[in-house]
Each structure stands twice: as structure tokens, then as C-alpha cells.
Amino acid sequence: MSSLEKYNPGPADRAQVRKEAGDNWTLVLVKILRHPPEKVWEALTDPGQLREWAPFDADRNLGTVGTTAKLTTVGAPASFVSVTEVTRADAPNLLEYKWGDHDTRWELEALDQGTRLTLWTKIDRRYIAMGAAGWHVCLDVLDFLLDGDPIGRTVGPDAMKFEGWKRLHSEYAKQFGKDAE
Description:
Blueprint: E1 15-19, E2 25-33, H1 37-45, H2 47-53, E3 56-58, E4 68-73, E5 81-85, E6 88-90, E7 94-99, E8 102-111, E9 114-123, H3 128-146, H4 156-161, H5 163-176
Antiparallel strand pairs: 1-2, 2-9, 3-4, 4-5, 6-7, 7-8, 8-9
Helix pairs in contact: 1-2, 3-5
């Protein structure tokens, strides 16, 4: 059994979408992790750990305000590199930067038995269900990594071939009434 075969995503119940001014949308996903915020923070900022779960590679650590980094999308048909500056880094509670044109905000809240991780990201209305399904899978892969049982990054076209992603996409599309085709 491959690593990915042991993974079956739960229901599409982690995301919300919020309409902002104009035609701007924000996707909000929440994941409860069994690890302390400090460990989760490292996975959000360390390039080596990002390569294990995130949909992009970072050429440097994202844990310091003012850091300029290149974020390279993984698994896209064409390479997309964006230069970002970390605008907020309050370890281990809050991280903000842009990924391309999309504001990205990570909030980490300590719980008795772990961390509530909340992702806020701007998203094109046409890709809300796709983005929700993709980030859902990424955050699950992050959870496996933090547990010491990495299953391998699953992003882009590889994720879209994965039956679990297809189901999530369909469920999120139904939930949000967006990009259901």
C-alpha cells in the first residue's frame, strides 16, 4: 500500500468562503492538529517542511517579518514563481504574506491538546471549491507529517487525480455552489 492509499480525507466541512468588497473572496479553512503551535509554526515557515506538504516551495524561511522569499508553485503545468515579503510573523501565533496576488494569513491558537490552525487566503471566485479541496488535502498531509508519518505532498494535477480530492471538490462545490463542473 502506498502512503497516499492509507489516506482517506474526511468530509468537506472545514471551509467557509466570505465575500469581500467588489468581487473579492476569502477562503477560510480550519484544521485541529495534535501538536503544539511551535511545532506547527516550524512546518509553516521552514522550507524543508514546506516541501513535504505545501503547494509551493520557499527558497528561505518565512518566519521573520521583512523576509523576501521566492515561492514556486509545485505541480502546475507551467512554473509560477512569485516573490513575497513576510508582512507579519508573530511566532507561533500569526504569519502573513502574499502568494502571488493572494493574501495568505495563518493563525495558530493553542489548545489543551494541540493547535487550531486557521488559513485565510484570497481566492478567485471561479476556484473556490478547487482551492478548498486542495488546501484540505494539504492540511491533512501536514497532519501526517507532524505525526511523523509523512505520506508525501499531493498537489496540482497529482492531487486532482486522487479520488479523495475529487470527492472533496464535488462536496465543496455543492456546499459553495461554485465551480461545480
